[in-house]
């Protein structure tokens, strides 16, 4: 799909201009100003602009940008070649104090930690070396900064534009980045294109409800839709986010399904393997009906039993680690002998196989190598034991309830 008659239409998201500024700008040839009747925030404003734009390719730019020479063709070229590419220029820095233009390094890409805040990060030494051979090669980036990018208009629409329930600012770049990658596209920084951007120390406008809350709500919507079980690491990193209502996400989940988007695990393995998944998998309680696995105050070498769930952690708090351990503080549930009907006791956690369990989809907590599962049938006499796995037995049905979700 090629742009008609070289006619590229831009949408500049000028969401902090006054009406008077708009009238001034409208005097410029080819500039069309669309003003919202009420404050909508950048997401709904951009979607509105995109709907009105008539060209095949959309370019979003923040209002505080200055385009460098020949910045556009390298971006357009990549999108014309493959409409599933979403591309950004290298973002140079315009000083907020004196508007000085400062070239940025092209050895950067966009990333994030589990707090889901965008950050620039250096390419690996190998990638930097490869770039020295050919400095024009596009840089694949896990995340885009959000303010400046080019996308095929039909692809933008097919991919679900934006989450229209996100307010004001923040989190939308995270959401579109996950969505593009997980739903079959890619994100690139094109080093041959440079655009300056004023990086501000703070927002020049106010947020209804407080900036922290708006950012957390938007981020939470992105995490809830796109991150599957990995959202728990976000909540572990930003515990306050758990208390922020995020509204209804049904239509976004339906979109994810309709587009056959890949799980977040795929994104982590293929797009962002540098993001380390924390060792702790999940913390919470292990339930069987109204009862929870409980240390009953026993210590090392002691058995564990069941007790009415009390939702206050303590003796009922367990961590399922990445290595498969079921851990209470520094003690792990341990199979004493590799036989059926074996006692299960708490021992200091080590690397051994007899501390490795897998929570199966059907609710079985199975030893990682043997066909034995945690079972409560002897709980009043011998505590929880390990028996031959049988998913039909109620005594082997467990539910892990994370207190992070
Ligand atoms: Mn900006």
From TrEMBL:
Entry's Gene Ontology molecular function annotations: carbohydrate binding; polypeptide N-acetylgalactosaminyltransferase activity
Enzyme Commission code: 2.4.1.-
Superkingdom of this protein's organism: Eukaryota
Cofactor(s) this protein requires: Mn(2+)
Membrane topology: Single-pass type II membrane protein
Keyword Transcription: no
One cellular component term from this protein's GO annotations in UniProt: Golgi membrane
Enzyme class: transferase
Record keywords, A-Z: Disulfide bond, Glycosyltransferase, Golgi apparatus, Lectin, Manganese, Membrane, Signal-anchor, Transferase, Transmembrane, Transmembrane helix
Localization of this protein: Golgi apparatus membrane
Chief location of this protein within or outside the cell: Golgi
Family (UniProt): Belongs to the glycosyltransferase 2 family. GalNAc-T subfamily.
The protein, known as: Polypeptide N-acetylgalactosaminyltransferase
Organism classification: Eukaryota, Metazoa, Ecdysozoa, Arthropoda, Hexapoda
């Amino acid at each position: 799909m090629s742009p008609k008659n070289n006619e590229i239409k831009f949408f500049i998201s000028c969401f902090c201009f006054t009406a008077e500024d708009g009238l001034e700008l409208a005097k410029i040839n080819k500039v069309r100003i669309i003003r919202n009747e009420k404050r909508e925030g950048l997401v709904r404003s951009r979607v509105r602009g995109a709907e009105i734009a008539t060209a095949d390719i959309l370019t979003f730019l923040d209002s505080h940008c200055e385009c460098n020479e020949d910045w556009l063709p390298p971006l357009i070229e990549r999108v014309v070649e493959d409409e599933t590419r979403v591309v950004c220029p290298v973002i140079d820095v315009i000083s907020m104090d004196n508007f000085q233009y400062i070239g940025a390094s092209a050895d950067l890409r966009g990333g994030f930690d589990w707090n889901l805040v965008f950050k620039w990060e250096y390419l690996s030494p190998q990638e930097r070396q490869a770039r020295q051979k050919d400095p024009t090669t596009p840089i694949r980036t896990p995340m885009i900064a959000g303010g400046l990018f080019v996308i095929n208009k039909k692809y933008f629409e097919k991919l679900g534009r934006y989450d229209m329930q996100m307010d004001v600012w923040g989190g939308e770049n995270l959401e579109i980045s996950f969505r593009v990658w997980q739903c079959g596209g890619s994100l690139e920084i094109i080093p041959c294109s440079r655009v300056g951007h004023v990086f501000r120390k703070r927002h020049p406008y106010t947020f209804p409800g407080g900036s922290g809350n708006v950012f957390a709500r938007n981020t939470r919507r992105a995490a809830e839709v796109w991150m599957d079980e990995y959202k728990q690491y976000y909540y572990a990193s930003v515990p306050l986010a758990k208390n922020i209502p995020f509204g209804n996400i049904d239509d976004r989940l339906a979109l994810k399904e309709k587009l056959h988007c890949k799980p977040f695990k795929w994104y982590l393995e293929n797009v962002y393997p540098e993001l380390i998944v924390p060792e702790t998998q999940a913390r919470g309680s292990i339930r069987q009906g109204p009862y929870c696995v409980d240390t009953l105050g026993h210590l090392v070498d002691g058995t564990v039993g069941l007790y009415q769930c009390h939702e206050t952690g303590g003796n009922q708090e367990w961590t399922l680690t990445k290595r498969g351990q079921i851990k209470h503080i520094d003690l792990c549930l341990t199979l004493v002998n590799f036989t059926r009907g074996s006692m299960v006791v708490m021992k200091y956690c080590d690397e051994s196989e007899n501390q490795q369990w897998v929570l199966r989809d059907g609710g079985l907590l199975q030893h990682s190598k043997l066909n034995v599962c945690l079972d409560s049938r002897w709980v009043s006499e011998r505590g929880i034991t390990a028996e031959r796995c049988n998913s039909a037995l109620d005594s082997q049905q467990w539910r892990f309830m994370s207190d992070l979700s």
